[in-house]
Amino acid sequence: MGIFGIFNSKKKESLDQGLAKTKESVFTKISRAIIGKTKVDDEVLDNLEEILISSDVGVETTLKIIERIEKRVSADKYMGTSELNGILKEEIASLLEENNSNDIADFDLPESNEPYVIMVVGVNGVGKTTTIGKLAWHFKAAGKKVVLGAADTFRAAAIDQLQIWADRVQVPLVKQVMGADPASVAYDTLSSAKAQGADVVIIDTAGRLHNKVNLMNELSKIKSVMKKVVPTAPHEVLLVLDGSTGQNAFEQAKQFTKATEVSALALTKLDGTAKGGVVIGISDQFKIPVKYIGIGEKMEDLQIFRRREFVESLFS
Questions:
Q1: What residue stretches are annotated with the SRP54-type proteins GTP-binding domain (predicted)?
Q2: Per-block average pLDDT, block size 10, for the chain (316 residues)?
Q3: Are residue 62 and residue 123 in the same domain, yes or no?
């Protein structure tokens, strides 16, 4: 299967458009850095380091990439700047591969008699509700029966927003009143999903970070209550991060990975920013696979993250 075997041209076009600002920023800077240079020397590498850091790849990850390039340059004394792009592409793709070993086909789920439970975490304003709505749409389009659970009972707006998405996608939403016990909502959601023979359950949770201990306790409680209904739940803890916040997204990832076991990441709002490099840095630093990326407003603009296509889009 070729590089775009499971990736049609329409999706590739959306990806290219969604990453256009980052690509333009990185690309223009790299072109400037190597103008008039015939070989990759220390000055080129220093400039490259600066460019990657300013694209929010993060210092540690940038140093790893530069080190890999240095190794290749010293092995091949005659490497010219014209090959730099290709090498960058290869090294970043292989770095991403270490944390995203399996590129999954579209919205596949493991075979099971029980619903597949996704618990969604993240601070308010990162696009959490929108991501849940779009995920529900994708799973439904893939022929799956979806149930949503509104366990962010801290804000009335969170329940209302989720209801709007549930109506839009035409999937059932299990909810209680604002201030209700989030674990009790999760329990009801799973019980209802099981009774309906649902394939996927997506549970929203409160996005407060100001008191990590409370957050930790709340998420642990939601998890343990879910297990009473589906012993293997949650199958996925998905952390949603706003890619346009760059270094702030790193900080949120740090806090949430301390508060709960995060197993997958979704990076949203990449279309409005030149900080797309954050995907590379976060994937590398937290050793958690990036599973979804948000590159626009449309339903299909939430895409499965495929490292090769991502790197291809950035550096081609």
A1: 289-302
A2: 49 83 79 79 90 89 93 75 82 82 67 94 92 96 96 92 97 96 97 97 86 84 96 96 89 90 92 82 90 89 87 79
A3: no
Together in a domain, 141 and 290:
yes
Tell whether 128 and 264 lie within a shared domain.
yes
- 312 part of a folded domain: no
**Does residue 316 belong to any structural domain of this protein?**
no
Domain extent at residue 171 = 116-306
**Residue 271 assigned to a binding site:** yes
208 marked ligand binding residue: yes
Amino acid at residue number 103: D
What SS3 state is found at 238?
A: strand
pTM for this predicted structure: 0.89
Q: Is 144 annotated as a binding residue?
A: no
Q: Is 174 annotated as a binding residue?
A: no
Q: Does any domain span residue 3?
A: no
Alpha carbon distance 147, 140 (integer Å): 10
Of 251, 253, 262, which is closest to residue 120 (Cα–Cα)? 262
> Would you say residue 1 lies in a domain?
no
Q: What is the DSSP letter of 72?
A: H
Instruction: Read off the DSSP letter of residue 5.
Output: T
The answer to whether 201 is annotated as binding is no
205 marked among binding-site residues: yes
Is the domain of 40 the same as that of 180?
no
* Annotated binding-site residue? 207: yes
**E strand spans, 122-253:** 146-151, 173-174, 200-205, 236-242
Is 26 labelled a binding residue?
no
128 labelled binding-site residue:
yes
